[in-house]
Amino acid sequence: MPSQSETATPAPTARPDAAAPRSGWIPGTSAIRFGGDYNPEQWTRETWLEDIELMREAGVNLVSVGIFSWALLEPREGEYDFSFLDEILDLLAGAGIDVDLGTPTTVPPAWFWKAYPHAAPVTRDGVTLGFGSRGIVSPSSPEYRRAAEAIAERLAERYAHHPAVVMWHVHNEYGAPIAESFDEASVANFRTWLERRYGSIDALNRAWGTTFWGQVYRSWSEVDAPRRSQSITNPAHRLDFQRFSSDALLECFVLERDAIRRHATQPITTNFMATSCPAVDYWRWAPEVDLVSNDHYLTASRLDAHVLLAMDADFTRSLAGGKPWVLMEHSTSAVNWQPRNVAKRPGELARNSLAHLARGADGILYFQFRASRFGAEKFHSAMLPHAGTSSRVWREVVGLGDVLRSAEELRGSRVEASVAIVWSTESFWALDLDWRPSEDLSHRERLEAFYAALWERGVTVDFVHPSHDLSGYDVVFAPSLYLLDEPSAANLRGYVAGGGTLAVSYFSGIVDEHDAVPAGPFPGRLRDVLGLSIEEFLPLRDGEQVRLTDGSTGAVWSDDVVLEGAVAVSSYAEPAAGGGPAAGRPAITRNALGDGSAWYLSTRLDGADLGGFVDAVLADAGVAVDVPEAGLERVVRVGDDSTRWLVAINHADAPARVGAVAADGVDVASGARVAADDVVDAGAVRIIRLG
């Protein structure tokens, strides 16, 4: 039996800056990639043959295979059986359908759980989780890492040169459902991680502020994972455990990736969940994949789900460094795991898919090709639903395949943005911990609000880490930047001094990378760039609102702002006019610094009021805005030869004019000339090559 002890894999060297250059796009056809997960282990050979013919009918050219098949490929430890995989890969190759070959390590087999019960994940409450679902065991388990590396290497040895295999897909959705584990192997790995990070136990004590509540450590062996405790646990301790947990999962990916790379040259990826998996810091992960791929599922109960889809796609493109990426999974209609699994309306399948295409995806894939008849996801929609080829969903899938073939000229083009939004996963982790000044503080709510305001104005955005090179952007919005280290703060100062426009929302710049308050008044390392200080936070009561002198209405938050170079653009109204606890104090400020300016918004504005603030910031930066008709989403992709395409998606129930941007263009599907007054029908999509 293999040894049950193993040295923890060193943390990979990755940095939170722009994504590293990719090794290239998926080899093979010049078409937009189209397809989805295919799970042949659920079906007979006769069904395989039927499915392959249907894939060809729909224009499928890429399927993901093998993701949940570890129990079949390695039925007993160290014994491998690749017979079913050999056959299906040969059949797909013969049909001209390429394969994204998955490593099946998201679901260790029953034999693994029996042989290594101590590898089971443990929750923060001390509950040991068992076999019977999908999801990794303890990411720090040496037995799991050894077994995962072995199956990945055996697959690469066997299929590195198979004609069907054009890319590799490691694991599945790292961080879901297991984001962290409190088992003993994880604790040991955490101590090693901390020792690498801090070098000495004294440095750890200083970083964590352990003199508070008498938590001083004298040796690494005294440091545990931040388990559930009598009151709240040291927030710096919890923040580092979140960093460690993301890195532990990344170590697992790197281990499998490197095992594959010893034999194969095809690009290697793993499917991110860009805005829906807060446990993983994708800025650290993006440089480690050859190309970025992402899974996205609508929150079907929300009427603005299409806006959140666009946000997710923009963040994924940003992780990809602006290069084309793959939508590895989304749904043709309803999913099966939300409280209310709302089916997509006619045309929504195409709108969702083409919105991802518009925002940089050169691969459009679904979970999954054929709907499962059994198991936990039997009610999840598929390209081929239970209703079969006579269904509306199947007809729309085939129709989308036709559209993607007509749009293949977009492949390799990029999306350009002059406006960015700051996305700092570490800051979000820290803000979401216990005992903040108001339970109404929500980084996600503010990100969505600012993004929606820009979406409504037709402004395409990139997402950036605060340490990134920001010089290419006219405006950078920071809706929620609670945690800020000194290098990132210096980067923001340099951006503004160099001519950029920065707009910061409340409760930003409050703590350093250890969740400690820097010396001096709030907002810490943002004081000089914003030209102000905050004497006291003035959070509002539940439902309370405050009036501003510009006529807007705030909620949730206010600050006692002291101007130190900035000027007040708007103030809180006097007490009798509903100014609240900050009555008469500055509410919105602007600070001139060098060649640029920095704005501060000290309360939560929504709707038209937030839109007015965004308009003022954009105007200050000289950003011209061409607002589309309500419900019309417009995104431009640009080719290496400067050819430009407009993807216009009408989410409204009435026709919408394409606008002047499309004048003298050519409809890619029909070849017809386009005028500014031409329309996109209700619920329809048009792709226009611009003149």
In what order do the strands lie side by side in the largest sheet?
5-4-3-2-1-9-8-7-6
Question: If you compute it from the alpha carbons, what radius of gyration comes out, rounded to the nearest whole angstrom?
Answer: 26 Å
Total beta strands: 28
Distance between the termini: 67 Å
User: Can you identify the CATH class of the domain at 419-620?
Assistant: Alpha Beta
- Proportion of strand residues: 15-25%
Low-confidence stretches: 1-22
CATH topology of the domain at 419-620: Rossmann fold
CATH architecture of the domain at 419-620: 3-Layer(aba) Sandwich
Question: Helical region count?
Answer: 17
| Coarse morphology | globular
**Major β-sheet annotation:** 9 strands, parallel
Calculate the mean pLDDT score and round it: 95
Structural class call reads alpha/beta
Q: CATH homologous superfamily of the domain at 419-620 - what is it?
A: Class I glutamine amidotransferase (GATase) domain
The level of helicity is 25-40%
Structure write-up:
The structure is a single chain. The protein is of the alpha/beta class. The radius of gyration is 26 Å and the shape is globular. Among the domains are: 291-406; 419-620, 3-Layer(aba) Sandwich (Rossmann fold), CATH 3.40.50; 632-689, Immunoglobulin-like (Sandwich). α5 (142-159) packs parallel to α8 and α14 packs across α17 (607-620). The chain contains 17 helices and 28 strands. The model is unreliable at 1-22 (pLDDT under 50). The strands form six sheets. It has a nine-stranded parallel sheet, covered by helices on one side.
